[in-house]
Design brief:
The protein has about 290 residues and is mainly alpha-helical. The protein has 2 domains: about 200 residues, no CATH class; about 50 residues, no CATH class. Helices cover about 40% and strands about 10% of the residues. Helix 1 runs antiparallel to helix 2. The radius of gyration is 26 Å and the shape is elongated.
Length: about 290
């Protein structure tokens, strides 16, 4: 049985998707919401997932399209630009990434958002673009009853993005952990709505309080300190004094033009080592 030639077989905006994947995972505190449900080691980037789904269902540009489609997409370039917008990419992420890399090389920080738009995965396609999407789907497949199936759905990125674009979606998984993640990502929010958030917030806070009580001893906070992160290291006893000595392959906090490192300080009468932050090549080499 023959099938239409689909977009992914000929073209995909790989570079743009690569940059958006970096943006998506650029900060551990600003990951997509489903990342915070539970760790899944092979969870796919959302923007790449939506790109793979849509490019597998949409046709390649064709000059023999009906007049209304040809009017909307007079050439392949216009069609590709529309597809990129459909993914939520509303600027030139490649150019923006180059500007950021040049600024980083100089130790500079660009003001505002160099990309000029929010991360692609946060955006939903406009009603107009969704209508065009379904018109293309129907023209290509002869129906709008499209089913997307992910037989090994893992962390749920592919079925989630499929649902966000309105496709009937099936997700399967053998691993019980992934199965629960899929329920929490795809099923429970749709079934219980916003009422579920209150229960999650309540019991999540209970767990957070229990964990804090047990672990705060190991994460001290001094007066007037603003903690960004803790760095830990295994220790061994000094053969002479018996005091703990941290083991670490290096003490860099940042390399490059404005390096920052941790200096280890030791005195015989101290109960343990102390640490000092040193900045600049001159002080670090000293």
């Amino acid at each position: 049985m023959s099938r239409p030639d689909v977009l992914i077989e000929k073209w995909l905006p790989i570079a743009e998707l690569g940059v958006e994947s970096q943006r998506e995972r650029g900060a551990s505190s600003a990951l997509p919401p489903l990342y915070f449900l539970h760790v899944w080691w092979a969870r796919r980037p959302l923007t790449v997932s939506r790109g793979a789904i849509l490019a597998s269902l949409l046709p390649q540009w064709n000059e023999d399209w009906p007049e209304d489609l040809k009017e909307k997409f007079p050439d392949e370039e216009n069609y590709h630009k529309w597809f990129i917008r459909l993914l939520g990419i509303l600027g030139d992420p490649i150019a923006a990434r180059k500007l950021i890399e040049k600024a980083n090389e100089k130790g500079e920080r660009l003001p505002g958002n160099p990309y000029g738009y929010s991360r692609a995965f946060t955006r939903i396609a406009s009603d107009q673009d969704i209508k065009i999407l379904w018109k293309l789907i129907e023209h290509t497949w002869g129906t709008t009853e499209i089913v997307v199936c992910d037989p090994m759905a893992g962390g749920g990125s592919i079925p989630l993005e499929s649902l966000r674009y309105g496709f009937t979606t099936y997700a399967n998984e053998l691993n019980p952990v992934a199965s629960v993640i899929l329920k929490a990502t795809l099923d429970y929010p749709a079934r219980y709505g916003k009422a579920l958030a209150g229960y999650i917030r309540k019991y999540g806070q209970l767990w957070a309080n229990m964990v804090k009580e047990k672990l705060e001893l190991y994460y001290p906070v001094q007066e007037n300190e603003s903690i960004h992160a803790y760095i830990w290291a295994r220790t061994v006893a000094c053969p002479t004094t018996g005091k703990p000595v941290p083991l670490s392959p290096n003490r860099w906090l940042r390399k490059g033009k404005n390096p920052v490192a941790v200096e280890l300080l030791c005195e015989p009468d101290w109960p343990e080592c102390r640490f000092k932050i040193v900045k600049g090549e001159k002080d670090i080499k000293r």
